[in-house]
Amino acid sequence: MARALSQDLRDRIIAAMDGGLSRRAAADRFGVSASSAIRWRQLALQHGQAVAKPRGGDRHSGRIEGHGGFIRELIAEQGDMTLVEIQARFVERGVSVGIGTLHRFFVRHAITRKKDRARDRARPPRRPEATPALVRRPA
Description:
By secondary structure, the chain is an all-alpha fold.
C-alpha cells in the first residue's frame, strides 16, 4: 500500500499556489498529480492546512468493546463457553457479531478460556499414551 505524501511537500505545493502558480503548474513542478494539488488546496482553504487522513488501524473493534462487560459476565458465569455459544447469546440480545470478532476480542484482552474436561472425553486422544518410563536393566 502506498504511503501518504509528506506534509512538507503538501505545504510547499500550497505555498507555490499562494505565490501565484496555478494548481496544475504547481503539481507539475513538484511531480504530483493535478487532482492531488487541487484537493490539497481545497483542504487548506477549508481547514487551514492539508493534513493527510489517518490510514489503517482497526475501525470495527469499538462495536464489540461496548459489550465487553457482557462478554466478561458470560465467561464468569460459564468459563468453558464456546465462541459459538457466546455468539448465540449475542443473537438473543439482538446483536450480530462474528466468531472472528469475538476471537480477536479475547486475544486483544488476553482472555484465555479452559475447556471442561468432560468435553474432552467425547473424542479419542490425539496421540497414544505417553511412552512408559525406561526400565533400568541389570548389567
